[in-house]
């Protein structure tokens, strides 16, 4: 029982450095959050030692009496957090992450080479929603299934539902996927349901980014309209890194097996081995926390903070994709300033602001993203309010103003030349001190 600092000072030191980085920097990555001490304790517990392939009451290993209790508790909390009735919905809490949850869901719903439609990655969709380029199938969701993406309108930044409907007429998908990694507006689930029904397709929502907001009632609930809902658990939901698959009990009854049987079988044994019980414990704790008035207040604050930051950026004359945000993130279009997302991500890193480059409305590909994605969930967990986010927007404005000057000085569009000038800049050092 030697503590980590003695057993392995190298790893202990790296962890301490990372902890300090998280403390010292302005954390604006839209897919990250700060989970609680209680979640981390559960995640680092003795449950990590236990094998429990199978489901509660039907395991391939002995000694699972407590793990069975834990998994049933986690399932119940997942249903409670999203206000779901156990007679209508079930949930599998074993996926290791959002990506594996999605692949298991596709495995449950489709046969190899069936057709799916998801939001294209440059439009804000996720890799696992069928991503491929003109030249290459990138994700297993496009390698093992056929994919035809739908897109946002390049002017408005809003999903082009008319085009989606037209293309679905031609493509006749077996599965329609909604949900995104970088989409600042809420979804028209009712319209998507109608499109799916026309083609007897399943409708799956991957609510990974917004699941905390859905739990708190701050975004429309996809459960009203979808057959299957997946999520990971560490974004706005503020849990450990894991995944969940919710399935409607009575969907697809025409098929030989129920959706419940197909989802459970797809998770194990089709896609995964033994569940990570320590993580399931962390998820259970996070779901309990998500089902409290304090969490509802948190989610409201996340949205209020996003609105405040968006309004401040717009007041400086900047362009945001889709004109603003309904959720926890904004997409800031830097193309009018002739800057790329990569340059701003790098220069932000130099001044202790952490965010990521992202394709934005009007970008042709994801290779040179024309903007950045900025999220408010992590800093809201640290107590930031609207005025703090206005100050964050002021820092971002100052960073971009410096970047415009650096670009001029570099006299080249290359990131390497831009960074050479940035590393030597006194203005960057001065801004870093202020941040
Ligand atoms: N789905 C969406 C919408 C995401 O944004 C992400 C991650 O960014 C994932 C799935 C993948 O989740 P994970 O990283 O937990 O595998």
From TrEMBL:
It catalyses: (6R)-5,10-methylene-5,6,7,8-tetrahydrofolate + glycine + H2O = (6S)-5,6,7,8-tetrahydrofolate + L-serine. CDD domains: SHMT. InterPro entries: PyrdxlP-dep_Trfase, PyrdxlP-dep_Trfase_major, PyrdxlP-dep_Trfase_small, Ser_HO-MeTrfase, Ser_HO-MeTrfase-like, SHMT-like_dom. Keywords: One-carbon metabolism, Pyridoxal phosphate, Transferase. Its cofactor is pyridoxal 5'-phosphate. The keyword Transferase applies. Pathway: One-carbon metabolism; tetrahydrofolate interconversion. GO terms for cellular component: mitochondrion. It comes from the Eukaryota. The keyword Membrane does not apply. Residues 4-395 form the Serine hydroxymethyltransferase-like domain. It holds the Pfam family SHMT. Its EC number is 2.1.2.1. GO terms for molecular function: glycine hydroxymethyltransferase activity; pyridoxal phosphate binding. The modification N6-(pyridoxal phosphate)lysine is found at residue 235. GO terms for biological process: glycine biosynthetic process from serine; tetrahydrofolate interconversion. NCBIfam families: PRK00011.1. PANTHER family: SERINE HYDROXYMETHYLTRANSFERASE, SERINE HYDROXYMETHYLTRANSFERASE 1. Belongs to the SHMT family. HAMAP family: SHMT. This is glycine hydroxymethyltransferase. It comes from Coemansia biformis. The gene is SHM1.
């Amino acid at each position: 029982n030697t503590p980590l600092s003695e057993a392995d000072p190298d790893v202990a030191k790296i962890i301490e450095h990372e902890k300090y980085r998280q403390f010292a920097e302005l954390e604006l990555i839209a897919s990250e959050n700060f989970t609680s001490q209680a979640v981390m304790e559960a995640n680092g517990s003795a449950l990590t030692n236990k094998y429990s392939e199978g489901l509660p009451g039907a395991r391939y290993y002995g000694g699972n009496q407590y793990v069975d209790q834990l998994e049933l508790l986690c399932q119940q909390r997942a249903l409670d957090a999203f206000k779901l009735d156990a007679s209508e919905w079930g949930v599998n809490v074993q996926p290791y992450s959002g990506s594996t949850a999605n692949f298991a869901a596709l495995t449950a719903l489709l046969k190899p080479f069936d057709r799916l439609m998801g939001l294209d990655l440059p439009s804000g969709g996720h890799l696992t929603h069928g991503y491929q380029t003109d030249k290459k199938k990138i994700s297993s969701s496009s390698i093992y299934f056929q994919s035809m993406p739908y897109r946002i309108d390049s002017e408005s930044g809003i999903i082009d539902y008319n085009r989606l409907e037209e293309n679905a007429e031609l493509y006749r998908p077996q599965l329609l996927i909604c949900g995104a990694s970088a989409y600042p507006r809420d979804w028209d689930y009712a319209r998507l349901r109608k499109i799916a029904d026309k083609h007897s397709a399943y409708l799956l929502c991957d609510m990974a980014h917004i699941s905390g907001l859905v739990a708190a009632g701050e975004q429309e609930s996809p459960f009203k309209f979808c057959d299957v809902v997946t999520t990971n658990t560490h974004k706005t939901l503020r849990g450990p890194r894991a995944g969940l698959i919710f399935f409607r009990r009575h969907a697809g009854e025409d098929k030989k097996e129920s959706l419940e049987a197909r989802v459970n079988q797809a998770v194990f044994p089709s896609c995964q081995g033994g569940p990570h019980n320590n993580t399931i414990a962390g998820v259970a704790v996070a779901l309990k926390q998500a089902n409290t008035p304090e969490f509802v207040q948190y989610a409201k604050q996340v949205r209020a903070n996003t609105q405040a930051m968006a309004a401040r950026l717009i007041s400086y004359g900047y362009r945001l994709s889709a004109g603003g945000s309904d959720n926890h993130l904004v997409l800031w279009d830097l193309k009018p300033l002739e800057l790329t997302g990569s340059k701003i991500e790098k220069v932000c890193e130099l001044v202790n602001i952490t965010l990521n480059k992202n394709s934005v409305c009007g970008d042709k590909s994801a290779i040179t993203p024309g903007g950045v994605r900025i999220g408010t969930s992590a800093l809201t967990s640290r107590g930031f309010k609207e005025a703090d986010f206005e100050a964050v927007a002021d820092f971002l404005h100052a960073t971009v103003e410096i970047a415009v000057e650096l670009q001029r000085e570099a006299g080249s569009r290359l990131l390497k030349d831009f960074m050479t000038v940035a590393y030597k800049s006194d203005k960057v050092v001065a801004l870093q001190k202020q941040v």
